[in-house]
């Protein structure tokens, strides 16, 4: 997938007004994800992504241990969403939409390794709720 196609797809899924907002959302999610997973997993996840995008994963200080609330807070802060709890649902949705797109692009084995790198709890499971939804929607139409 090419850079403009990836950014355009994120812009479409998140219903953002412009590419700049989409790039900000991508950077927020991928940087935070890159910080949370191990370096090798970040490299594997970055492999099939456009080089303009993969750098957010590769340049992150990987292997940090932080919980769901901190993950969402970092995404909200980086994406310029509300500082209070109002930005949290939107930040979670950003993660869900971008993770679902990654699931379509990254080989399944690599994607599952990334998923295994996150805590196995209901909070982090929210990030994967949209995986496969877009493909199922397109198949139905």
Question: SSE layout and pairings?
Answer:
Layout: H1 3-14, H2 19-36, H3 39-46, H4 51-58, H5 68-79, H6 87-105, H7 108-117, H8 122-125, H9 133-140
Helix pairs in contact: 1-2, 1-6, 2-4, 2-5, 3-4, 3-7, 5-6
CATH homologous superfamily grouping: Uncharacterized conserved protein DUF2267
CATH class: Mainly Alpha
Question: What's the main sheet like?
Answer: none
CATH architecture: Orthogonal Bundle
Quote the beta fraction: under 5%
Helix content: over 70%
SS-based structural class?
A: mainly alpha
Distance between the termini: 22 Å
Overview of this structure, please?
It is a single chain. This protein has 141 residues and is an all-alpha fold. The chain has a single domain (3-140), classed as Globin-like (Orthogonal Bundle), CATH 1.10.490.110. The protein has 9 helices and no strands. The chain has helices spanning 3-14, 19-36, 39-46, 51-58, 68-79, 87-105, 108-117, 122-125, 133-140. Helix 1 packs across helix 2 (19-36), helix 3 (39-46) runs antiparallel to helix 4 and helix 5 (68-79) crosses helix 6. The two termini are 22 Å apart. The mean pLDDT is 91.
């Amino acid at each position: 997938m090419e850079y403009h196609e990836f950014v355009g797809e994120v812009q479409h899924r998140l219903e953002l007004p412009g590419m700049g907002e989409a790039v900000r959302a991508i950077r927020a999610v991928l940087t935070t994800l890159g910080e949370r997973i191990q370096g090798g997993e970040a490299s594997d996840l970055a492999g099939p992504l456009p080089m303009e995008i993969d750098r957010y994963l590769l340049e992150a200080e990987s292997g940090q241990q932080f919980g769901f609330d901190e993950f969402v807070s970092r995404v909200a802060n980086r994406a310029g969403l509300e500082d209070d709890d109002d930005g949290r649902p939107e930040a979670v949705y950003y993660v869900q939409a971008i993770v679902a797109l990654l699931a379509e692009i990254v080989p399944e084995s690599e994607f599952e390794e990334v998923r295994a790198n996150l805590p196995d709890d209901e909070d982090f499971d929210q990030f994967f709720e949209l995986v496969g939804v877009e493909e199922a929607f397109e198949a139905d139409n």
